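Data card: per-record layout.
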Amino acid sequence: MIERVAFFSVHTSPLAAPGSGDAGGMNVYVDSVARTLAAMGIAVDVFTARVDDGFGEETEVAPGYRVVHIEAPGRDRAERIGVYAEGVAAWAIRHQASYDIIHSHYWLSAWAGVLLEEPLQAPLVISFHTLGRVRDVGSGEPPPPLLRLAAETEVVARAGCIVASTPAEAADLMEHYAAKPERVCVSPPGVDHGVFHPGAARRSDLGLPGGPLAAVVGRVQPLKGIDVAIEAIAGIADARLVVVGGPSGEVGDREQDHLRTLADDLAPGRVDFLPPMSHDAVADLYRSVDVVLIPSRAESFGLVAVEAQACGTPVVASRVGGLAFSVADGESGYLVDGNDNADWTKRVLAILTDDVVSTKLSAGAIVHSSGFSWNVTAARLLELYQGLV
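The structure for this 389-residue chain is written out next.
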């Protein structure tokens, strides 16, 4: 019987607002699964490295779900992970805490999980969320450090169970990391249908313009392909684009400057850049725009796609990674091969100018998104946990 679970999320806290810094879909995943498991009576402690965010050592988020902030300074990642692991072990000893399962999120946390599996005497489950050998291919991002690739390979060999978000990610794990098929389990993320649902939304409440309107939601980095969205909108007369999110990663600030320049050159006055929004506000945004664009060059799942579709908003996305799973091509939106401007413009234009197409895809988006639920995700994880125990 699973009663207590430890989540490791070293590099980003589930309390951080998605869309800026290192916070993104993984933060939503960790927070949503922890809340859902806690509501099911499973105690969840999420251990994250402290940042200067004003939180104390422990933050009770909901009954049965708390975030523990571990001091983890270090000159490099290897030193920091060692200090983090020591901090988690010391906290567990002080609080006489024991766990049935360790679930690590991202490769840094997986590394910490390998170090702590024996001291905490609990089986290790890993969710990578992104993979170094897959994520950075053609993304415009700096190449992954060799340390990351070596660490990912090692922890794949050691984990009792690796959770993939989609069959495509499972295939990548087996192809690029020689993961054993019997240790790879597929469990898609969910969506909070209490927040993301169809409904009326007034653009004026969000300060959004009238007319044909598209949106991109996520961190600003080359990987997200926001330049493709700007180029597509530039080819559609009177259409506007709103980009919601902040710079992320080593080249995030430079990428944001590049995108602003590109927008001024190709679509002057028709592209707005907004800071990250709360869950409730971004749900209103989805309901207010005509289409959501996800031109990512790599994506393990694409949580934004499912959230937007749950609001009844069609999605146009790259046919890469998990997006081919989270978007039903021709039913809830469109998948586009590559970054050709003409292909993207054609698909976006069809939604913005053809009421029959947009109505059909909106209805299909609601149906498709109904298959994703955090309750289903948590139940599947519990099944996997119990199998390991």
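Known properties of this structure: The first strand starts at residue 4 and ends at 8. Residues 4-190+373-388 form a domain with the Rossmann fold fold (CATH 3.40.50.2000).

See the next section for split statistics.
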